[in-house]
Specification:
Helix content is 66%, strand content 4%. Strands 1-2 form a two-stranded antiparallel ribbon. The longest helix is centred in the C-terminal third of the chain and has 44 residues. It has a domain of 192 residues. α6 packs across α8. The relative contact order is 0.09.
Length: 323
């Protein structure tokens, strides 16, 4: 009889060993049997406390509160840097002839002509801004006055219903300017203001366009990204006019006099020849207007920055209370 290997069970099926050459259950010969390779049980990765906490933190990063916090901090950075950086870039563009020409053709020229038209509307005249020229009617038009007054009254009403006092105050100030320009200004003075309103409009309208960066977050201008386009247009128009008259302050020979080919005499030529301004008055009136616009822009900039910072501080305070 063959003596089985020194083991207590069959290496193939695990049945109890007997004193025989083969297993009674599976029939394998003990001497030739090889043990079965059993599959190892799957290893279950038990999450640790660290992994659970890291997962919870990553999920917490995308909560509505955290997203709102990121938006408010981003808005604060935008309020701090957007206007100054864009003004610096616009100033750099004025120093490069090619960029200066492009910016004037596609951006500042349209603000210039719109400045003529807006001044005409506030003086009661019909005007249509166009490329390089703005036709102005010879006599005042009651329809223009009524439409403009209606628009300003609607803006005041919207500001009141939306609880935005700055809209109400702005509309009331503009209504006062319209009354003065239409009913307290003679036609000759009105036409002089319309001529002055070209580069003057580049300064005033450019400032107002840049101020849209500080507008409320729930407004359509803010949500629709319009304020970024307004910022670029406003900065280029403002810097174009400021560069012209700041250079003229140092060198009066750079004042753009003469005739625009195929159109008419330039605005400075009309103001000097027809209305008897001198170069000193012309230059300093534009620069004084630029200074007033700069002060207004600075006030709006500080207000927008403080408002954005207050919103971030408010959220931080709420987070500390909840935590």
């Amino acid at each position: 009889m063959v003596e089985p290997p020194p083991s207590f069970s069959c290496p193939r099926c695990g049945a109890p060993r007997i004193e025989a050459p083969e297993c009674p259950r599976c029939g394998v010969i003990y001497a030739r049997a090889k043990p079965l390779v059993t599959a190892k049980p799957p290893v279950i990765d038990t999450p640790t406390v660290a992994s659970i906490s890291s997962t919870a933190e990553s999920e917490a990063e995308f909560t509505p509160a955290s997203i709102e916090k990121i938006d408010r901090e981003l808005e604060l950075d935008i309020r701090i840097w957007a206007i100054p950086v864009t003004l610096v870039l616009a100033k750099m563009a004025m120093a490069i002839d090619f960029l200066h020409s492009l910016s004037r053709i596609f951006l500042s020229m349209w603000v210039h002509e719109l400045g003529h038209a807006v001044t005409a509307w506030f003086c009661g005249f019909m005007a249509f801004p166009g490329p390089w020229v703005t036709p102005v009617f010879e006599t005042r038009n009651l329809f223009v006055t009524m439409v403009l007054a209606g628009v300003l009254l609607w803006i005041a009403f919207r500001g009141f219903t939306l609880r935005r006092p700055w809209l109400v105050v702005g509309a009331v100030i503009l209504l006062g300017l319209q009354v003065k320009g239409t009913f307290a200004t003679d036609p000759t003075t009105a036409r002089m203001l319309i001529i002055f309103g070209g580069d003057g409009g580049m300064l005033v309208l450019g400032t107002l366009l840049m101020m849209t960066m500080c507008i409320d977050a729930d407004s359509q201008i803010h949500r629709g990204w319009l304020r970024w386009g307004f910022l670029v247009i406003g900065a280029v128009a403002f810097m174009d006019a400021l560069d012209t008259w700041w250079t003229a302050l140092k060198d009066p020979s750079t004042i753009p006099l003469g005739e625009i080919e195929g159109i008419a005499h330039s605005d400075p030529s009309v103001l000097l020849d027809e209305y008897r301004w001198n170069p000193y008055e012309l230059t300093h009136r534009y620069l004084r207007l630029a200074g007033a616009c700069g002060v207004a822009l600075g006030v709006a900039y500080v207000y927008g920055w403080r408002e954005a910072r207050a919103r971030v501080a408010e959220m931080e305070k709420a987070k500390r209370k909840s935590g």
